[in-house]
């Protein structure tokens, strides 16, 4: 059975392709390589020992999508393709709205044309805005979002709901990710931001590797156990496995539903820094800086729904996430 993965050479996309192949699915990737490299396809193939069909095309390009659907009998789509940098989205909102919305609309249009109505969408916990309490349940109010990137995720969730209302043959899973980190055990695929990273783990890795002098800890005066921000870090391989379960769910049902993909555990910035330093036996210098505008104190998932309905739960802990993130960097140097 063939699954089309848009953005399949990205961080989460590539790990998901590996898990899909391991689970016995065939994989077709469309990716314009805006934020990834073509050799990721070779790496997916070398990890799994299986071939993937790769199209270097833009997901906004309806003709390119049409060609793929003509050449392959696609059973379901996992839609990752999109811009994802929060700061950049504030600076370039038109680019973000255009790309993230147009790619989704093009995809859904071509899917409907080919009568393929099974979709897993890569959403984010950012759709909850600043939650009134934690853990966050899927039925919590959505928004207001705090940046254009987050708004595109929320808008796309709403678009997909409208599509379902118009045609109840669709089956859609909205996967709301918490904070994915870590990398595949092989060290062949992982997260490699080109510029100075915005997110915590890629920044820690660059500090540990002495590419950056120290970590800026954004605030230690939050209402959390040690005053630093608390998040639900999830190993990207666990997250990828959640997509396989979600694909199975959309293949065997109709309707639309949202699922949190997190561990249900909250760790502070200093928990992550100290765990990373200890398990990798390396120094991570840091200094306490003011809060980052738009940040919230705590964000972690209720994981009951994903467990109950998708039969999925995260299994890897923070130590493994820290080890695998560092191992990936070591491997990129070889
Ligand atoms: C951020 C995005 C969110 C996106 C998610 C993807 C913002 C405001 N939110 O979430 O929309 O879905 O990434 O993974 O950017 N921290 C530091 N120093 C750093 C970097 C981060 O102290 O150099 C702290 C932050 O203040 C936060 C925690 O580490 O408490 C995690 O930050 P980050 O990795 O950027 O993720 P989020 O803020 O949760």
Quick summary:
With 334 residues, the chain is of the alpha/beta class. Helix content is 41%, strand content 18%. Strand 5 (118-124), helix 6 and strand 6 (171-177) form a beta-alpha-beta unit.
Largest sheet: 7 strands, parallel
CA-based shape: globular
DSSP E strands, number: 14
Order of helices and strands: EHEHEHEHHEHEEHEEEHEEHEEHH
Structural class of the secondary elements? alpha/beta
Strand order of the largest sheet: 3-2-1-4-5-6-11
The proportion of strand residues reads 15-25%
Summarize the amount of helix as a percent range.
40-55%
Number of helices: 11
Round the Cα radius of gyration to an integer and report it.
19 Å
Mean pLDDT: 97
Bound molecules: uridine-diphosphate-N-acetylglucosamine
Uncertain regions spanning at least 5 consecutive residues: none
Quote the distance from N terminus to C terminus.
36 Å
Q: Can you offer a commentary on this structure?
A:
The relative contact order is 0.14. The protein has a seven-stranded parallel beta sheet with strand order 3-2-1-4-5-6-11, with helices on both faces. A three-stranded mixed beta sheet has the order 12-9-14. The radius of gyration is 19 Å and the shape is globular. It is built from eleven helices and 14 strands. It is an alpha/beta fold and 334 residues long. Strand 1, helix 1 and strand 2 form a beta-alpha-beta unit. The longest helix is centred in the N-terminal third of the chain and has 21 residues. Bound molecules: uridine-diphosphate-N-acetylglucosamine. Uridine-diphosphate-N-acetylglucosamine binds next to helix 7 and strand 8. The site of uridine-diphosphate-N-acetylglucosamine has 20 residues, from helix 7 and strand 8.
């Amino acid at each position: 059975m063939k699954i089309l993965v848009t953005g399949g050479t990205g961080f989460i996309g590539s790990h998901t392709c590996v898990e899909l192949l391991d689970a016995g699915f065939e994989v077709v990737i469309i990716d314009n390589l805006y934020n990834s490299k073509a050799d990721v396809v070779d790496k997916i193939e070398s990890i799994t020992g299986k071939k993937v069909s790769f199209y270097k095309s833009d997901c906004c390009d309806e003709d390119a999508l049409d060609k793929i659907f003509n050449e392959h009998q696609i059973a379901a789509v996992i839609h990752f393709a999109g811009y994802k940098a929060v700061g950049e989205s504030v600076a370039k909102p038109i680019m973000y709205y255009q790309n993230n919305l147009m790619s989704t609309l093009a995809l859904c249009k071509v899917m409907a044309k080919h009568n393929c109505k099974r979709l897993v969408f890569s959403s984010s916990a950012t759709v909850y805005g600043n939650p009134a309490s934690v853990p966050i349940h899927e039925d919590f109010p959505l928004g207001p979002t705090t940046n254009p990137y987050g708004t595109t995720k929320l808008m796309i969730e709403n678009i997909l709901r409208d599509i379902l209302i118009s045609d109840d043959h669709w089956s859609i899973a909205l996967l709301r990710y918490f904070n994915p980190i870590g990398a595949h055990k092989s060290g062949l695929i992982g997260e490699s931001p080109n510029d100075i990273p915005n997110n915590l783990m890629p920044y820690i890795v660059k500090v540990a590797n002495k590419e950056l002098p120290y970590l800026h800890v954004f605030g230690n005066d939050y209402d959390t156990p040690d005053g630093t921000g608390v998040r639900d870090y999830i190993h990207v391989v666990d997250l990828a496995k959640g997509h396989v379960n979600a694909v199975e769910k959309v293949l065997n049902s109709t309707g639309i539903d949202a699922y949190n993909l997190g561990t249900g555990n909250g760790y502070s910035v200093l928990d992550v820094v100290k765990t990373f330093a200890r398990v990798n036996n390396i120094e991570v210098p840091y200094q306490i800086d003011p809060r980052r505008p738009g940040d919230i104190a705590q964000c972690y998932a209720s994981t009951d729904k994903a467990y109950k309905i998708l039969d999925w739960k995260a299994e890897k802990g923070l130590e493994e996430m820290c080890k695998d993130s560092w191992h990936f960097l070591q491997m990129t140097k070889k």
